């Protein structure tokens, strides 16, 4: 559903407006009802998420439901970075109303980054999929946007594992069958320890490596714990 900008640009000097929390909370109210009705979703680790202060949720990206599931099952109102193509018509209006941020994928989207940093600096929560697109979800590589947001927003990083949201052979654009068992596990918060002696690209590269390792390990461990395997393919035929 969302993607991290590949080459982040500096945030704008004039801070964008932060969406009201009651509007962002609609994600939780509506999402939990819908996922409870149509799927067997087990959510683990919500108690690990800090109750206040800036939090950046980073998730592996397997299927089309990952995007709406993260803010729906998060213990805190969470704004997601969502691909700009979805912000059209009634859907686009609704996504903006409930606090999501349109982002142009694979680019240093200045306005999207500024909006996300503003939410984090106001003590809010933002969600992003640092792999940049749906696939196996094994976090073999990530883009730099997520680490940049964590550093600029002063946020702790909470890894989120999505398991069962797509099966082997299914396209990344397809919905799981009704009643499918899925697991969403929130990990422990971690503050990226990019050395203060580093500057610019070196610091960002170090933080990005830490974030990738954190998320990949969390996803792998969660898969073993819950006995839910990641898909064996990247579902490229249905990628969007």
TrEMBL record:
GO molecular function per UniProt: acyltransferase activity
SMART domains tied to this protein: PlsC
Domain annotation Phospholipid/glycerol acyltransferase: ranges: 55-165
Keywords for this protein: Acyltransferase, Transferase
Organism name: Pedococcus ginsenosidimutans
InterPro entries assigned to the protein according to its UniProt record, in alphabetical order: Plipid/glycerol_acylTrfase
Protein name (Swiss-Prot/TrEMBL): Lysophospholipid acyltransferase family protein
CDD domains: LPLAT_AGPAT-like (cd07989)
Superkingdom: Bacteria
Pfam family, one: Acyltransferase
Keyword Lipid biosynthesis: no
């Amino acid at each position: 559903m969302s993607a991290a900008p590949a080459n982040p640009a500096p945030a704008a000097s004039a801070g964008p407006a932060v969406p009201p929390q009651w509007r962002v909370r609609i994600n939780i109210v509506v999402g939990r009802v819908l996922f409870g009705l149509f799927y067997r979703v087990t959510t683990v680790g919500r108690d690990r998420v800090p109750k206040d202060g800036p939090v950046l949720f980073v998730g592996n990206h397997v299927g089309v439901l990952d995007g709406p599931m993260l803010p729906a099952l998060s213990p805190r109102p969470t704004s997601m970075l969502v691909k700009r193509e979805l912000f059209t018509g009634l859907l686009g209006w609704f996504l903006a109303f409930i606090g999501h941020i349109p982002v142009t994928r694979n680019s240093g989207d200045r306005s999207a980054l500024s909006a996300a940093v503003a939410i984090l600096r106001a003590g809010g929560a933002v969600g992003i999929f640092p792999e940049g697109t749906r696939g196996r979800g094994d976090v073999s590589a990530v883009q730099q946007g997520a680490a940049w947001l964590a550093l600029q927003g002063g946020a702790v990083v909470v890894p989120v594992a999505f398991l069962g949201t797509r099966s082997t052979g299914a396209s990344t654009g397809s919905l799981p069958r009704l009643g499918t068992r899925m697991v969403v596990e929130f990990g422990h918060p971690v503050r990226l320890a990019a050395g203060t002696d580093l500057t610019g690209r070196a610091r960002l590269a170090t933080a990005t490596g830490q974030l990738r390792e954190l998320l990949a390990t969390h996803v792998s461990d969660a898969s073993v714990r819950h006995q839910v395997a990641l898909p064996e393919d990247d579902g490229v035929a249905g990628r969007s």
